[in-house]
Amino acid sequence: MAKKQKKQAGGTPATVALTASGTPFTLHSYDHDPASASYGEEAAEALGVSPDRVFKTLVADVDGELTVAVVPVAGQLDLKALASAVGGKRATMADPAAAERTTGYVRGGISPLGQRKRLRTVLDTSATTHETICISAGRRGLEVELTPTSLATLTSAVLAPIGRG
Questions:
Q1: β-sheet with 142-146: strand ranges across
Q2: DSSP states along 38-100
Q3: H/E element holding 138?
Q4: Residue 53 and residue 73: Cα distance in Å, rounded?
Q5: What is the pLDDT of residues 70-82, one digit of tens each?
Q6: pLDDT at residue number 4
Q7: Contact present, 60 and 82 (Cβ < 8 Å)
């Protein structure tokens, strides 16, 4: 069952970055099931939040440069739209090992915040239709809830329609 916590120092690089920035957020934890087929859908269900408010962090390779895409777990990433959003020609999903090595997080726990190497970030415009959204807090079973504006500001994200379905 999900537990709701207030701001706390320490934890993951994402929660440390949020605390250091003074950004208001709520931390949610739940028991991660290693057998779960989808990390994002598992989070939505565990937290009792609509899947269109829970966003997954995907790492793609756009013309040789790793780029972060933040899209609702209820849909998929449109790679062509992602490439276009950052002025690129072609995007493919990044090698998982490269994504983990570059961000400092494990797959299923990659956060757009507090990455080892700050990557260019694109946030799907659907985020702006919600007062708050949930994103990975940097490990499986831990989500952070914050405003889309706060996320965009902290990551210097480009807002673009990169999600589909």
A1: 3-5, 26-29, 142-146, 133-139
A2: -HHHHHHHHHT--TTTBEEEEEEEETTEEEEEEEETTSEE-HHHHHHHTT-S-EEEPPHHHHH
A3: strand 133-139
A4: 8
A5: 999 989 999 999 9
A6: 41
A7: yes
